[in-house]
Write a structure and sequence with these properties.
CATH topology of the largest domain in chain A: Rna Polymerase Sigma Factor, Chain: A
Oligomer: heterodimer
CATH superfamily of the largest domain in chain A: RNA polymerase sigma factor, region 2, helix turn helix motif
CATH architecture of the largest domain in chain A: Orthogonal Bundle
Strand content of chain A: under 5%
Low-confidence stretches of chain A: 1-16, 21-30, 117-139, 208-213
Distance between the termini of chain B: 62 Å
Largest sheet of chain A: none
Radius of gyration of chain A: 17 Å
Distance between the termini of chain A: 31 Å
CATH class of the largest domain in chain A: Mainly Alpha
Low-confidence stretches of chain B: 75-130
Order of helices and strands of chain A: HHHHHHHHH
Structural class of chain B: alpha+beta
Structural class of chain A: mainly alpha
Largest interface: A-B, 79 and 49 residues
Number of strands of chain A: 0
Helix content of chain B: 25-40%
Shape of chain A: globular
Chain lengths: 213, 253
């Protein structure tokens, strides 16, 4: 899919996403399966729980892509309501609830950017507010470990693979646009995404994030 | 079975494939358990990426808005629990001192100000006869001219036109425009919320087609969120018994 996002000046060596060294975002809990069942049955309390679990992650992702707090709020609201109304489309065998929700949020962000003819902003440091709040100390510890693993896995990727993935995931750029921005052939971009993602998948597979939630 | 699509899965989950490629991948996934399983892993990998970002909490009011919208569309809306109603907080009608020819001058000035805050007065000002909506906007406009800070609620599915006003001296008022009536034996109840603490009742009001302004006995200062629920009339409830139909952030009001 080509998103036709305007290309910014090439900066092949610039690291796009400065990841957090502080509070993490992981919000996976052990009763996700029960929650999913109730969510799909139209239980409002389940929607409330799903929101409480994933709203910070969804909002963070939307803010990172859109760099606009009001637009991010709109997208998050639309995304949760869309998920709520279309929960029968969610297939637990195919993805986690978190991944499904983040896919919805991400696509709505890019839909919004396309509609506004605005380029994605890739500077989440510029407008970062407070960290995720949690009253559960044990969950904070668990979250910290999870996020640390994800950051560690990303750090193990060669910078050009990581950057290519970030351009695609947070920037919504097509592979052609990424190739232009990074000044490399299209085949190189495809290779970096495939190899980089395979490495990530292997590294993260050992984390058993879903076993935590 | 078509050729395995493992190499295309990262591009697939990142929405990087064109329509033809995407269709080919989805056709294959529908008949290949191995690739389907690997697609799930790849999608999950993508879904974990934002976990590493520095977290940013959404504003508390967003939660209320999501739940209010869900309650309006759900086929199983929550049912109100009957509680002992508290004594009502009196909402005193505030005298309107801005009348006569001066109104038109003020409204014209207010139109400029309201344009800045996103409220268009243009069409209303051209109407020879003042409608309820124009009266509402006039009330908001004069409030702005008084130096009040204004926070409008989203109109929501009830078509409500409600705004909170805080005077330079800290007095809080509610400006109510044309709003669908709350229903038989029902009232709208305004709540102020701070974090996870129980909502605090700030008063009750009725819908209708007459715009009016009421002084609130409680100041919105120090609260993060204002919300409106429909409660049993005529005295409202001690705590909300239904999901909010309106909500807005008042943290910086």
């Amino acid at each position: 899919m080509s998103l036709h996002v305007p290309v910014r000046s090439p900066s092949p060596c610039h690291l796009l996403i400065p990841y957090s060294e502080g509070s993490p975002l992981a919000r996976d809990w052990s009763d996700d399966q029960r929650l999913i069942g109730e969510f799909q049955q139209g239980n409002e309390a389940a929607l409330e729980s799903v929101y409480d679990r994933y709203a910070t992650l969804a909002y963070t992702l939307a803010r990172t892509i859109l760099a606009d707090s009001q637009a991010a709020e709109d997208v998050v609201q639309e995304a949760f309501l869309s998920a709520w109304r279309n929960s029968e489309r969610f297939d637990p065998a195919r993805s986690s609830l978190r991944s499904w929700l983040m896919t919805i949020v991400r696509r709505r962000c890019f839909d919004r950017l396309r509609g506004m003819s605005v380029r994605p902003q890739l500077d989440p440091e510029a407008d970062v507010a407070e960290g995720a709040g949690s009253s559960d100390v044990w969950r904070e510890v668990e979250d910290a470990l999870t996020a640390q693993h994800v950051r560690s896995a990303l750090a193990q990727l060669p910078i050009e693979q990581r950057q290519t993935i970030e351009f695609a995931y947070y920037g919504g750029l097509s592979q052609t646009e990424i190739a232009e921005r990074m000044q490399v052939p299209l085949g190189t971009v495809k290779g970096r995404i495939r190899i980089g993602f395979d490495k990530l998948r292997g590294l993260l597979a050992n984390l058993e994030l879903d076993a935590l939630g | 079975m078509t050729e395995h699509v493992g190499d295309l899965l990262p591009e697939y989950v990142l929405d990087l494939l064109d329509e033809e490629e995407r269709r080919q991948v989805e056709d294959h996934l529908s008949s290949c358990a191995d690739c389907s399983s690997r697609a799930a892993e790849t999608e999950d990998t993508a879904g974990k990426l934002p976990l590493a970002l520095r977290p940013i909490d959404p504003p508390p009011a967003l939660r209320s808005r999501v739940m209010a919208a869900a309650a309006q569309t759900s086929e199983h809306p929550s049912r109100a629990a009957v509680q002992t109603p508290p004594p009502p907080i009196q909402l005193r009608p505030r005298p309107r001192s801005w009348t006569g020819p001066r109104v038109m001058a003020l409204v014209a000035a207010a139109a400029v100000i309201l344009f800045v805050v996103g409220v268009s007065l243009g069409r209303e000002l051209q109407r020879p006869k003042t409608s309820a909506m124009a009266s509402y906007r006039q009330l908001v406009g004069t409030s702005v001219l008084h130096g009040d800070r204004i926070r409008s609620f989203p109109t929501g599915s009830v078509g409500a036109h409600v705004a909170l006003a805080v005077s330079p001296h800290g007095a809080s008022s509610l400006i109510v425009g044309p709003t669908r009536p709350a229903g038989a034996q029902r009232v709208y109840q305004l709540w102020f919320i701070h974090g996870r603490r129980p909502p605090v009742s700030a008063g009750i009001f009725l819908g209708g087609s007459v715009a009016h302004r009421m002084s609130l006995a409680r100041s919105v200062s120090g609260f993060q969120t204002a919300a409106v629920t429909v409660e049993p009339g005529p005295r409202g409830s001690r705590q909300p018994t239904t999901k909010p139909i309106l909500a807005t952030s008042v943290a910086h009001l």
